[in-house]
Design goal:
Residues 8-102 form the HTH arsR-type domain. A 4-stranded antiparallel beta sheet has the order 1-3-4-2. The chain has helices spanning 16-24, 26-38, 53-65, 84-90, 94-105, and strands spanning 6-9, 42-43, 69-74, 77-82. The chain is built from 5 helices and 4 strands.
């Protein structure tokens, strides 16, 4: 992604209870898992399969308000980025453990 016409929206990392509450939902956990495995910002539409756009928007907002992700709007496209470093600084080891557990429980194709 280039720096042209770019808007970023992020919140501070929330307390552990809020972060865990955000990760408790299976849809949001899957979004975080996909973002972590991608290692780069991902177009929001690629983060969900079985829900409609308005529900996905709600889940992405919840993750953003918990400080787990940031929204990047660039040249009319919306991306989500997992705030790995920021979360690790505030809640060391939490995100790595949650994503590793989610990857282990994901059925293999």
């Amino acid at each position: 992604m280039t720096e042209t016409n770019r808007v970023v929206e992020a919140f501070p990392v929330a307390p552990v209870q809020t972060v865990l509450d955000a990760l408790h939902d299976p849809v949001r956990l899957e979004m975080v898992r996909r973002l972590a495995n991608a290692g780069t910002p991902v177009r929001c539409g690629l983060l969900y399969d079985t829900i409609n756009k308005s529900t996905a928007t709600h889940h992405l907002k919840t993750l953003r308000q918990a400080g787990l992700t940031e929204k990047i709007i660039e040249d009319g496209q919306t991306y989500a980025r997992l705030r790995t470093e920021e979360v690790a600084r505030e809640l060391p080891g939490l995100l790595d453990a949650v994503v590793a557990a989610a990857n282990r429980s994901e059925p293999k194709d």
